[in-house]
Amino acid sequence: MSNVTGKTIKEAFLTIEPRKEKHPMPGTSMEVWVYELTSYELETWREICRAEDDNMRRLNAAKLLQLSLRDAEGNRIFDEEEIAIIGGKPAHLIEPLTKIILRLSGYGAEADQAILKNLRKILGAAGLSDLLGSSTAASGNSTADIPPTSSESSGSPSSSGPSVPPPKDSKQS
Fold first, then answer.
1. How far apart are CA 104 and CA 98, in angstroms?
2. What is the DSSP string of 83-94?
3. Which pLDDT value is given to residue 57?
């Protein structure tokens, strides 16, 4: 590997494309392509997660779908203006796709557990069971409790995926 040059590494890096998977579109008989988030898209989603406006933060799962869901040609299915419409759809349709997007974008089991913990806070244990039917389902609706990985806690860089800063605290009334 000592013959690898910076130019070779750069060329290889620039050919990397986002991962994608074909999945059933919940509530329909159609399939949809789910793309992993690019760095720009990830930052756009993080901005929603940190928004001062509670209504914007509540739309972060809808924003994930808007950024990630594509047709067979790779075109986004939803426009920015349709985020509130997506957010108004039933959670049992949105959440499975949200989980796929987060997994493709580098979030693993630790994030799933933190997201599940946040969902339990929102719905309560009984509501979570009724809604999802499983304690292993996850939601992308909050990142406040995503714990750091062991390497992040020790201060060394992590290669396990992107870290998401928690949203800013909203004013308590």
1. 10
2. HHHHHTS-HHHH
3. 87
Q: Is the pLDDT of residue 139 over 60?
A: no
Q: How far apart are CA 68 and CA 51, in angstroms?
A: 20
Classify 34 as helix, strand or coil: strand
Q: Across residues 58-69, what is the average pLDDT?
A: 94
For residue 44, the cross-strand partners are none
For residue 122, the model assigns a pLDDT of 61
Q: Which helix (H) or strand (E) holds 20?
A: strand 20-24
Sequence spans of domains, the chain: 19-149
**How is 52-65 classified by DSSP, letter by letter?**
SSHHHHTTHHHHHH
Stronger pLDDT, 163 or 87, i.e. the higher one: 87
CA 136-64-112 angle, to 5 degrees, is: 20
CA count, 13 A, side-chain hemisphere, 19: 9
What is the SS3 assignment for 119?
A: helix
The CATH homologous superfamily to which domain 19-149 belongs is Phage tail assembly chaperone gp13-like (3.30.2220.20)
Distance CA 9, CA 5 (A): 6
Q: How far apart are CA 27 and CA 90, in angstroms?
A: 10
pTM: 0.60
Band (56; pLDDT cuts 50, 70, 90): confident
